[in-house]
């Protein structure tokens, strides 16, 4: 018989003082209640109740066992309540892994707005380009720029990243403005090493950090390949200039929210995904 149910029957028999009252409370037959107690006594190899025609009483071992069962059931009920509340109310620590391409003011502002709205959620953020094992490493969610995911995961598309070639005005003054794609072979390139590019520039720096690429471009070192959410503000202010229009060789990856395919998704994960969808939908690329 179900050990946990037998313990619940035992506690109700003691609390209500009879098999009949406990059976009515639990909506089972009196015979079934008696079977649960017999099964429990056989399992613990001890007599728990003194049974007479007039009343029931606990044995010495039964009294100790009863007190321990009350504590165990209360602990279990509290744990179940906490889990149920976690699937309804968003709270707790949200552990996410984000690629370096998303280390931008754009995503920082999204995360800040999320925390402003859901103050009971703490964020634990890891920046890395490798595909972390979400289950083994205990991550709730990952942002990724690939459609390729492992079995058992769900990838929800969020937004497309538009890349641009940009340079500082000082670089253009020194080396000239490329007029077309083929002109790039006469220019120095600063590119991300996580992207497989086939641009005819002379690569002088590659790095996995998009912020570093932008800062190097601002110094006038070369032409940088960057997502528009890192360049548009600087183009508008005149600190960077767009070099040539988009080419078919440019990558325009989609950012996905990747999470484990579970029947019951916790409120903190579900809320974060919905928030990302809401915010990235309003991001209009030029």
Plain-language structure description:
- The structure is a single chain.
- The chain has 286 residues and is α/β, with parallel strands linked by helices.
- The chain has three domains: 3-86, Arc Repressor Mutant, subunit A (Orthogonal Bundle); 92-159 and 253-281, Periplasmic binding protein-like II (D-Maltodextrin-Binding Protein, domain 2), CATH 3.40.190; 163-242, Periplasmic binding protein-like II (D-Maltodextrin-Binding Protein, domain 2, 3-Layer(aba) Sandwich).
- It is 42% helix and 22% strand.
- The chain has nine helices and twelve strands.
- The chain has helices at residues 3-16, 19-26, 30-44, 60-88, 105-117, 169-175, 210-218, 228-237, 267-281; strands spanning 49-51, 56-58, 92-98, 121-127, 141-144, 153-160, 163-167, 188-192, 202-207, 223-227, 241-242, 254-260.
- The strands form three sheets. Strands 4-3-5-12-6 form a five-stranded mixed beta sheet, with helices on one face. It has a five-stranded mixed beta sheet with strand order 9-8-10-7-11. The chain has a two-stranded antiparallel ribbon with strand order 1-2.
- Helix 1 (3-16) packs across helix 2, helix 1 crosses helix 3 (30-44) and helix 1 (3-16) packs across helix 4.
- The longest helix is centred in the N-terminal third of the chain and has 29 residues, at 60-88.
- The radius of gyration is 31 Å and the shape is rod-shaped.
- The N and C termini lie far apart (66 Å).
- The relative contact order is 0.14.
- GO terms for molecular function: DNA-binding transcription factor activity; sequence-specific DNA binding.
- One of its GO terms (biological process) is DNA-templated transcription.
- Keywords: DNA-binding, Transcription, Transcription regulation.
- InterPro entries: LysR-type_TF_proteobact-type (IPR058163), LysR_HTH_N (IPR000847), LysR_subst-bd (IPR005119), WH-like_DNA-bd_sf (IPR036388), WH_DNA-bd_sf (IPR036390).
- It holds the Pfam family HTH_1.
């Amino acid at each position: 018989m179900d050990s946990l149910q037998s313990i619940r029957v035992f506690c109700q028999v003691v609390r209500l003082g009879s098999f009949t009252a406990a059976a009515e409370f639990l909506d089972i037959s009196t015979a079934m209640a008696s079977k649960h107690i017999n099964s429990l006594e056989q399992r613990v190899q001890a007599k728990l109740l003194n049974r007479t025609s007039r009343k029931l009483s606990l044995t010495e071992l039964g009294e100790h066992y009863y007190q321990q069962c009350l504590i165990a059931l209360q602990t279990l009920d509290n744990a179940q309540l906490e889990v149920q509340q976690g699937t309804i109310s968003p709270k707790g620590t949200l552990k996410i892994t984000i690629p370096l391409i998303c280390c931008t003011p754009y995503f920082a502002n999204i995360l800040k707005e999320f925390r402003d709205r859901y103050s009971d959620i703490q964020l634990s953020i890891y920046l890395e380009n490798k595909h972390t094992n979400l289950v083994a490493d205990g991550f709730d969610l990952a942002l990724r720029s690939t459609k390729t995911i492992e079995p058992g995961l769900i990838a929800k598309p969020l937004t497309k990243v538009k890349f641009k070639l940009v340079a500082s005005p000082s670089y253009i003054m020194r080396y000239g403005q490329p007029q077309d794609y083929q002109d790039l072979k006469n220019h120095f390139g600063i590119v991300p090493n996580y992207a497989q590019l086939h641009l005819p520039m002379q690569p002088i720096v590659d790095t996995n950090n998009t912020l570093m690429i932008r800062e190097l471009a601002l110094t006038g070192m070369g032409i940088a390949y960057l997502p528009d959410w890192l360049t548009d503000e600087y183009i508008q202010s005149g600190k960077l200039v767009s070099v040539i229009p988009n080419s078919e060789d440019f990558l325009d990856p989609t950012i996905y929210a990747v999470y484990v395919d579970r029947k019951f998704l916790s409120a903190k994960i579900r809320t974060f995904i919905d928030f990302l969808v809401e915010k990235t939908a309003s991001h209009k690329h030029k």
